[in-house]
Amino acid sequence: AIISTPIFHEGHVFVSSAYGVGCNGFKVTHSGGRFTAKEVYANKTISNHHGGCIRVGDHVYASSGGTLACMELKTGKKLWEQRLGKAKSWSSMCYVEGRLYIVNMDGVSFVLEPNPTSCKIVSENSLDGLTRGSMAFSQGLIFVRTYKQLICIGN
Q1: In Å, what is the CA distance from 155 to each residue of 53, 136, 146, 150?
Q2: Which whole number is the average pLDDT over 78-106?
């Protein structure tokens, strides 16, 4: 099942799926009125289950089988992988005002600085409830749904 939205950047396409599939990178070219795509890599660096693969610069950040991973979009090279808390995440990662946001199934939210050399956690907060929801952002507010409540963070 492919749930994630493909990422296109500078002639390269990145796609990912879970269920043992992993990710693929393609180089797309155009010549003589025709497009061609050549597979550059196929690996399991990122196996994204529920969307939210994010491109920042030349790097892709995504939840992958209970961990967060960063890889080079054009080469497929894994740069790092780290578990965030004890639970998996079914939320879509968001990129807002230079930060990555994700919440795990235990209701622990993480704010990260996108960094290709290491996972830099800026903030970690418990939302006091289990969730499979994603964060939503509107007018300076953050919304997230747990199994029992809708939480709004902000002034």
Answers
A1: 29, 15, 20, 16
A2: 90
Average pLDDT, the chain: 91
The Cβ-side half-sphere exposure at 150, using a 13 Å CA radius, reads: 4
> Which residues, other chains included, contact 123 with Cβ-Cβ below 8 Å and sequence gap of 6+?
109, 110, 111
User: What's the Cα-to-Cα distance from 10 to each of 16, 29, 55, 72, rounded to whole Å?
Assistant: 18, 10, 12, 13
> With 60 as the cut, is the pLDDT of residue 95 above it?
yes
Alpha-carbon span 112 to 98, nearest angstrom: 9
CA distances from 32 to 25, 35, 36 (A): 23, 8, 11
86: pLDDT confidence band, cut at 50, 70 and 90?
A: confident
Q: Indicate the residue type of 108.
A: V
Task: Specify the pairing of strand 12-17 against strand 108-113.
Answer: unpaired
